[in-house]
Amino acid sequence: MNNPTSNKRQQNDFFWPSYVDLMTSLFVVMLVLFVYSFKLFKDREGELKQANGELKAKAEELEQITKIRRSLQRLEGKYFRYDPTNERHELLVPVQFKSGRDEIQDAYKPALLQAGRTLRTVLKSIKTDQPVRYLVIVEGMAARYPAGDPRNAREEQTTYQLSYRRALSLLNFWKQNGLDFGQDRNIELIIGGSGFYGTGRYQGRREGDNKRFLIQVIPKVGRMQ
């Protein structure tokens, strides 16, 4: 005959080890989930810190560029005019080249020299909290012949070279007079020629005024190589 007391003791002996095993397993599962969740949290926290750091750096960079652009307003005056539509400066010295030639006539040299000195002085006087490099683009342009003149089509390609040579003449003239922008560590100077094309050209009766130079100053903020 079965002993009720003995059966109850056997059931208790079976229950408690099983209960302990179950709780141990649950604890292990919860521990794994906690560790995994903690890792995800830390990874996310690191990503947020990195994103916040990048946003802060971008905001500081934008602030510096805005400050530089305000400082570049000092260029405006006798020698430069800012074109807000195309976001660039136009050299106001009314240089007139002989047709098809790139030599700068003596009459324009004093004003061009002073314009170059003004440009360099303004760039060197700008104070910023971060390193800054200026990309200075000197662009030469050419005027078209009257409408219908066959030379417009015939000389379309050669005027790119002509306007480039005109910009090069200006750069060489500055260099010969002690304005060697290439020696300035924070200035990178590029010359180009847009020929009969380019944005912001004069039209109609002012076509002849396209024999000119354009100056673009693009600030690049950040660590310099």
From TrEMBL:
Keywords: Coiled coil, Membrane, Transmembrane, Transmembrane helix. InterPro entries: OmpA-like_sf (IPR036737). It comes from the Bacteria. Gene3D superfamilies: OmpA-like domain (3.30.1330.60). Residues 45-78 form a coiled coil. The chain crosses the membrane at residues 20-41. This is OmpA-like domain-containing protein. It comes from Hymenobacter rubripertinctus.
